Every structure is written in structure tokens, then in C-alpha cells.
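Priority: low. Protein: Proteasome cyclosome domain containing protein. Input follows.
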Amino acid sequence: GHESAAMKLLDPYLPKTEPDQYGFKEGGSLFALGLIHANHGTAECVKYLREQLSAAQTSAVRHGACLGLGLAAMGTQNQDVYLQLRDALYLDDAVSGEAAGLAMGLVMVGSLNAAAFQDMVQYTCDTQHDKIQRGLRTGISLLAYGRQDEAESYIAQLVDVKSNAMLRSTGIAMMSMAYVGSGRANVVSRLLEKVATDPNNDVKRFAVMGIGFLLSK
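Result:
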């Protein structure tokens, strides 16, 4: 990749001392920096993205900084990064909150971190923003990535919550990530049952998508 030259390549677009009115260009460049360093971000890159997230003045810049930081720190389970992203989530801004919820899951991917799970599920219930709930749904599902049976106690807390379709679809997404590529017939059967019986179309849609994830290898 272009890790060594990333800052030079992106310099015309990265945030400067004079902030752009909206920040779309700057936010996009921070996301691009994270993509370049995805899953192997250097300490210097992570530090830079954290500084940009702290300094961000617009939702668009915070959005890009959250996504970039989540990618660069993917799978590190870095608690300081996670807490900074959680702070961005708690601003309850629909645009940056969606990215923060997703990025929290990227940092904690495959960890089944109980505290992160509780934080994210609780905020899914607390926020009124659909965009934030959707970002958290993806983030929560990433916690279970590849963990199969170990994730069942977490999935069980979500998948049958009759009063909350968002939590049910989150449980289905979590199941899909836990068993991705496994081809487990019993899990496919559980997803098919959701397609047939759940009254909510979003839950049905995620169950069908989940079958694809399970059979993806």
C-alpha cells in the first residue's frame, strides 16, 4: 500500500488550521487515511487521527475521523481509542454518531468485550437517531466476528426482544458475524425461522443477509 506516503498523498485534503465550512473534504481524507492503514495503523497514524477527532469542528470531519480511527485501530482493543469514540457517540449527533458506533465495533472486532456490548446496546435503546442505531447495529455485530458458539450468550440477549425490532435485527447481525463462513446448518435454520416468523421487515432482511454471510465460503 501507500502507508509511508499516505500523509503526503492526502496533504491537500487533510484538515488545516483554517477549517472548511462543512468539512466533507477533510472528513473524507481522514477516512482515506484509515483505509490506507486499515488493520495495521501505526502508533503515529492512530495518534494523528485521535488528535483530528478531538479538534473536529463539524459533523463531517468527526464522521471521517471516527471511521479512519476505527480502521487504523481495528482489532487492537485499545481502550483509550474506544473511549474517545464512545465520547463521540455520546454527542448524539446523527452523522458522526453513526460512524462512532461502527468504529467502536471495528476497534473491538471479535473481542466479545462485555463492557463494550453493554455500552453499545444501552445507547441503541437511548438514542432517538435511526442513523446512530444502524451504526451501532453494525458495531455490535463486529464484536462477535468469528466467535461462533462463544457469542450465543450475547445473541440471546437481543434476538428475541419482542418490543424492539432494532435489537432483534442487531442480534441477527451478531449471529451472522459470529458464524460467518461457517456454513452451520443449525444456524441457517434459525435464520430461516426468523425470515418466516418475525413481523418486522428489517429483521427478515437481516436474517436473509445473514444466510449469505454464513454460506460465504
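DSSP finds twelve helices and no strands in the chain. Residues 59-72 form the longest helix (14 residues).
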